Amino acid sequence: xxxxxxxxxLVSAVIATSRTSAPSGAITVGSAGQYSTIQAAIxxxxxxxxxAQFLFIQAGTYSEQVTIPARAAALTIYGSTTxxxxxxxxxxxxxxxxxxxxxxxxxxxxxxxxxxxANTKFYNINIKNTxxxxxxxxxxxxxxxxxxxxxxxxxxxxxxxxxxxxxxVYGKCYIEGAVDFIFGQHARAWIDSSDINVSAGGGAITxxxxxxxxxVSYYVINKSTVSSxxxxxxxxxxxRPWSQYARVCFQNTALGALINSAGxxxxxxxxxxxxxxxxxxYSNTGTGASxxxxxxxxKLSSAVSISTILGSTYTxxxxxxxxx
Length: 324
Hints:
Elements: H1 2-15, E1 27-29, H2 38-43, E2 53-57, E3 60-63, E4 66-68, E5 75-79, E6 92-96, E7 113-115, E8 120-123, E9 126-129, E10 140-143, E11 147-150, E12 153-155, E13 161-165, E14 167-171, E15 174-177, E16 182-184, E17 188-192, E18 195-198, E19 204-208, E20 218-222, E21 225-227, E22 237-239, E23 247-251, E24 254-255, E25 278-282, E26 297-299, H3 306-310
Parallel strand pairs: 1-2, 2-5, 3-6, 4-7, 5-8, 6-9, 7-10, 8-11, 9-12, 10-13, 11-14, 12-15, 13-16, 14-17, 15-18, 16-19, 17-20, 18-21, 19-22, 20-23, 21-24, 23-25, 25-26
């Protein structure tokens, strides 16, 4: 038994890598960095150069809204942490309060991070919209392809994560919200080995708005957990269809008792949007995985593959060490 514990501790130590100083060549942000704000550091980078770009954010809380414009180069942004393998030791938080009710021009404009750039990676950063209940208020607006988020924490209430355009991956992340908090229209998103926390009952986790039967949008939540310390049993749904072509799959995921036995719900009683939806499940576990599911949902006979969602060349841009 003692030998087993010793081996287990050694394995954990190998996995838990620290990153508390800037990688070579990275621009630094923080009280002792080259820039005091993240937006200033982003603005300092060329949008036309093709040379890879790197930012390292020192430990701290940054109260700002950050927009990342489209660029020719790949961009990687690292947050300080004592454990790169998880969001749990993240030492960097970017926070902002904005909502449609507080005057934002549109939903996207409420985002704490508005990422318009392809070929970007975020590591170990907490991103929060602190507005709270009452209106759409995005933490991350992801608006391009080959975007990867690893060990990232996303915090909001309604519309936390806008996965809107392109191929996106979220590995070992934390995603918190209460109403339609993983949503969007055209993106293909693979959420893997992540913790989805529902902060209040009465809503749905996903709200996919796939625009047509030919639109590529597809959200897959794979080998993750869905839980809540506050939502009552049976008060939360896996998703509701923002459009009649919504497409979402939960597979190999642990579903807590908060999930209603029907699994999925209509958009509303007057506009159900269920005629052509693709709501799927495969091999989920936990109390929330049982029950008579909605008639417009499907149980699959095999799991959806990541290459089906992101394409056969996904390993060229995805950090697979954050996948199950």
